[in-house]
Specification:
This protein is of the alpha/beta class and 436 residues long. The chain is 32% helix and 18% strand.
């Protein structure tokens, strides 16, 4: 007899061949089902998990059908079996309704089996904002509430049910909110901007004590007063007010920050990080704004990425960056002010181990000497720049991956001392590889 279990293959596609035993999530099966799997009940949890690591997804699903205890242990010990990913189509209403029916049947079965609370749901509602989708979102959130760990949702200004004081998803950890105007490039949405931002702000603040990752996309004007527990924050084309508010309330715990596609800010951020931020990625924002974050988090920042920064960097910001004592371990630079590249290399000369440079066809002469790089990558970069970097790091360089525009003669008399991995994507280099 075909069971709902057969349909769940579409709900949990992510499979980990060697799942990690998480003792904090394992619960002893109820006594009435603990002896229903025969000799398998004698297998300790560690050995049971090792066995699961050798099974393909379908075999694990078949094992779940063997008995209630097998299902309980498989879902508890194998993370992939309790993590379901659901995506609702933007266009196919029938498919969405079919998924709702499947979820209803799955919920009923897992409640009866005692495994419903083990499920970790990842839901992406897509971008459609018609009334059917609103009802669908309301249905899933209210019926699967505390099983939802990861939620992606578009705000059209009509999702007022998200502001219900009684609505709380206690296990929500990852939240991705997109502004409908941003997604559809629609400037004629009848709802005011206050509705978009009010709905998003209320929902974020209500989950402030359990959210670990937040991604905002679009022109939200969000003001948060509650203390946030965020470890990861990504802001794409949101207002400066929103960035300030989120960072101010999470700066004691924020570990990574991605800031992209925003420009024309009137001022630099005026507050300091208390020594937690470890990773910062800046994409298409003003160089002065990027420097303000870099300098404020200099003591703890270990990974930095700057790509396509807007405008030229001011003398004041460049002086601040030069005076900042960075201890970067990884640095990615692409199509940004050259002065940021050379200054960061100078300030992180002794700690930087991995460098990636892209989209630079200009020779840069003031590369610092004696870089301690172990890994160097270059894509669409001038031969002169790559030659300078290779020569500077030749004593420590281990891995080289380059796609250069031209061979540079300065490399002819230099040899990489410790090189164990060389990759040249531009074929004329191959005949010269033995000179490195």
């Amino acid at each position: 007899m075909k069971r709902v279990q057969d349909i769940e293959v579409n709900l949990c596609p992510s499979i980990h061949k060697s799942p990690k035993l998480d003792s904090s999530t394992f619960y002893q099966p109820p006594e009435e089902i603990s002896n229903s799997d025969g000799d398998l009940s004698k297998l300790p949890n560690d050995e049971y998990q090792v066995m699961l690591g050798f099974l393909d997804p379908q075999d694990k699903k078949n094992l779940k059908l063997a008995s209630r205890t097998c299902e309980y242990r498989v879902m508890t010990l194998d993370k992939s079996m309790r993590q379901w990913k659901i995506y609702f189509s933007d266009e196919d209403t029938k498919s969405n309704l079919d998924q709702i029916i499947t979820l209803m049947k799955a919920k009923s079965r897992h409640i009866l089996k005692g495994t419903f609370d083990l499920i970790q749901l990842s839901v992406d509602f897509g971008s459609s904002n018609d009334h059917t989708k609103l009802l669908l979102v309301d249905n899933v959130i209210n019926h699967w509430n505390d099983t939802i760990h990861d939620l992606s949702i578009h705000i059209s200004g009509n999702e007022f049910f998200l502001t219900n004081p009684c609505l709380r998803i206690n296990n929500l950890q990852y939240l991705d909110i997109t502004h409908d105007i941003f997604w559809n490039n629609n400037n004629n949405v009848p709802n005011g901007k206050d509705d978009f931002s009010m709905i998003a702000s209320t929902f974020i603040e209500r989950h402030s004590d359990n959210l670990e990752a937040l991604q905002l996309n679009g022109p939200f004007e969000i003001e948060i007063s509650a203390d946030l527990k965020l470890k990861h924050f990504s802001a794409c084309s949101v207002s400066e007010k929103t960035v300030r508010s989120i960072l101010k309330n999470s700066n004691h715990c924020l570990e990574s920050f991605i800031w992209m596609n925003e420009f024309n800010y009137p001022s630099r951020l005026s507050f300091n990080f208390p020594g937690v931020l470890q990773e910062f990625s800046a994409v298409s924002i003003p160089s002065d704004q990027a420097v303000s974050v870099i300098s404020a988090s200099a003591q703890t920042l270990r990974c930095l990425s700057v790509n396509f920064l807007e405008f030229g960097i001011s003398d004041e910001s460049l002086a601040i960056l030069a005076a900042t004592s960075l201890q970067l371990e990884k640095f990615d630079w692409a199509c940004s002010p050259y002065s940021i590249l050379t200054t960061v290399l100078e300030t992180s000369r002794t700690t930087l181990k991995e460098l990636s440079v892209a989209a630079c066809d200009t020779e840069i002469s003031n590369i610092p000497d004696n870089l301690q790089l172990e890994v160097l990558r270059g894509f669409e970069v001038s031969g002169a720049l790559m030659a300078s970097l290779i020569i500077s790091a030749k004593e420590t360089l281990v891995e080289l991956d380059i796609d250069v525009l031209a061979y540079h003669p300065d490399l002819g008399n230099n040899r990489i001392v410790q090189s164990s991995s060389l990759y040249f994507a531009y074929y004329p280099w191959i005949s010269r590889a033995n000179t490195l």
